[in-house]
Amino acid sequence: MADFDAPGEFVSRADLCQGIGDFVGADKFMVRALELQLDSAPQDAQMLRFLTARKVEINLLAGNFAKADECWKALLKLQRGKLKSNDRDVAATLVEMGIFYRGEGKWRQALLRFDQALALQQDEFSTNNHDYVVTLAEKAHLFGLQGNQKKAQNLIDQALQLAEHGTNKWHECVALVLRRKAKSLREWRNPEILESYLERAIAILSEENKMPHPEIRLCLSELADLGLSRGLHRRAERLYVRSLQLTEPFMGSKHPDSIVLLEKLARLRRALGRYSEAEAHYRKLLAIHKQTRGSTAPEVVHAMFSLGSLLRESREFDQASTILMQALEMQESLLGPDHEKVAMILFELGCLHGSTEDFGIAESEFRRALAIQEKNESCAPSVVADTLSGLGMLYFARREYETAETLLTQSLLIKEKEFGPRHARLGDPLLKLARVSDALGKHEQANDLHERADDLDQEPSQLNDFWF
After folding, report:
1. What does the alpha-carbon distance between residue 464 and residue 462 come to, in Å, rounded to a whole number?
2. HSE on the CB side for 344, CA within 13 Å?
3. Fewer Cβ neighbours under 10 Å: the N or C end of the chain?
4. Which conformational region is residue 456 in: left (phi greater than 0), alpha (psi within -120 to 50 degrees), or beta?
5. Which pLDDT score, from 0 to 100, does residue 463 have?
6. DSSP 8-state class, residue 264
7. Are 310 and 352 in contact (CB under 8 A)?
8. The pTM is what?
9. 359: how many CB neighbours lie within 10 A of its CB?
């Protein structure tokens, strides 16, 4: 009976509840797990932090930030009061709180917790300590996210110098700091420079032939992201695959990290035109979300939308139509008929019915999508521009060239205003408008548009989808 009542049993039950989307039930089991832990082994600070972190995760998934916040505050109050924890354990909790606030964009609270942790760690250990160095790197990452690259760089350099001159087993610490250096400076430095930090971190963590260090899979994924930003698609694919191979066996296919990696692989392989592989990924994601979130959850609708969009692009129109219509009905039920996510599905359906020459249905879907987007202030201008472009190409297919020209010109003007006159994303609008100009006999104007497309800052994307 004692084993049955152990905290781990209640964590397992919480996992089952979380898997089916019962966050209230999951939270109750985690409360019980924490109570048992406090009764049986209150000085096991690491287990208390683990249980609290799981409780925080459950409340964040349920959309309850305030309750998640209270979980950390309650643990900290216990450690400083009833438990009388040592400074090292309190500092570790403060770091976890800083990471939590940083992830939620609460910069001031995050900075306060990191500074409190650093003060405790420096008093107890001085700066020549693994915990102090890692906390310094976490604080640097915070400044990087805030856009304060100078402070981020200074702190990271300080942390790296301390780590590289440590006296004990500091190799892992060096790797952790290097990874945070790449993360904190990601928006500032050239990706080629940042890649070297992650590559060195992977090399350090791979030195021992034991179970792969959990940071390796994260480094691999972030290295893939950097490669993708440089247009190195094949390299990114290999790295995502390696990261997934290290994540699924240890975390399970239903873990959020596994799901994110699978989504990235699906998008990348779709972009590479490898539709059958991408389709298999999207179908696996759909099955996972149905099993863990329930058949009508928002994650299921998103997976259906992604799968339907892929099938439309690969010209599997009957399957795409069935899935997208189901997704539309579910999205309208979840969010109402005038939500911008409903407009996204309507846009895809408009593209699909344009491709099957059901022009009347396509026009209705494009116009409804456009009406929703234009009255939603949160909708990005480029999304409105894409819908105008889709509608314009519909009129082009119906040989109503003047209306097509008006709509495509509006689309181009919106993207020029949003991205500037030389951005690569103007490539497709310029080429589409050139086609319409040719059809109207405005050959000189069409030539000018082609020249503009050729003169963009980067290579314009190829016009491989008539409707998008």
Report:
1. 6
2. 16
3. N
4. beta
5. 41
6. H
7. no
8. 0.75
9. 14
More confident residue, 16 or 31: 31
Neighbours of 424 (CB within 10 A): 14
Whole-angstrom distance, CA of residue 295 vs CA of residue 97? 34
The count of other CB atoms within 10 Å of the CB of residue 199 is 14
Please report which confidence band the pLDDT of residue 22 belongs to, taking 50, 70 and 90 as the band edges.
confident
CA 112 to chain centre: 26
| Structure letter (DSSP) for residue 460 | P
The span from the CA of 462 to the CA of 241, in Å, is: 27
What number of residues does the chain have? Answer: 468
CA angle 332, 336, 337 (to 5 degrees): 70
What does the mean pLDDT of the chain come to? 85
First vs last C-alpha separation in the chain:
62
Mean predicted confidence (pLDDT) in 179-188? 75
**Cα distance between residue 57 and residue 44, in whole Å:** 20
Q: Grade residue 197 by pLDDT with cuts at 50, 70 and 90.
A: confident
Q: Which residue has the higher pLDDT, 317 or 152?
A: 317
- pLDDT at 427 exceeding the cut of 60: yes
Q: Is 209 helix (H, G, I), strand (E, B) or coil?
A: coil
Name 83's Cβ contacts closer than 8 Å, sequence gap at least 6: 42, 43
**pLDDT tens sequence across 257-296:** 899 999 999 999 999 999 999 999 999 999 998 888 788 8
Q: Per the structure block, which two tokens stand in for 455?
A: 């003169």
User: 């259906």: which residue's tokens?
Assistant: 304
Sequence-distant contacts of 385-388: CB under 8 A, at least 24 apart: 385/410, 385/411, 385/412, 385/414, 385/415, 385/418, 385/429, 386/347, 386/411, 386/468, 387/343, 387/347, 387/350, 388/414
Residue 459 DSSP class? P
Exposed (0-12), middle (13-18) or buried (19+): which is 138, by Cβ within 10 Å? buried
pLDDT at 208: 59
**Angle, helix 256-271 to helix 275-293, in steps of 10 degrees:** 150
339 Cα distance to chain centroid: 21
* CB contact burial 152-174 (16+ within 10 A = b; e otherwise): bbebbebbbebbeebeeebbbbb
Tokens of 153: 């760089």
Q: Is 441 helix (H, G, I), strand (E, B) or coil?
A: coil
User: What confidence score (pLDDT) does residue 239 get?
Assistant: 92
* pLDDT of 246 higher than 70: yes
The DSSP code sequence of 129-146 is: SHHHHHHHHHHHHHHHHH
Lowest average pLDDT, out of 79-88, 304-313, 442-451, goes to 79-88
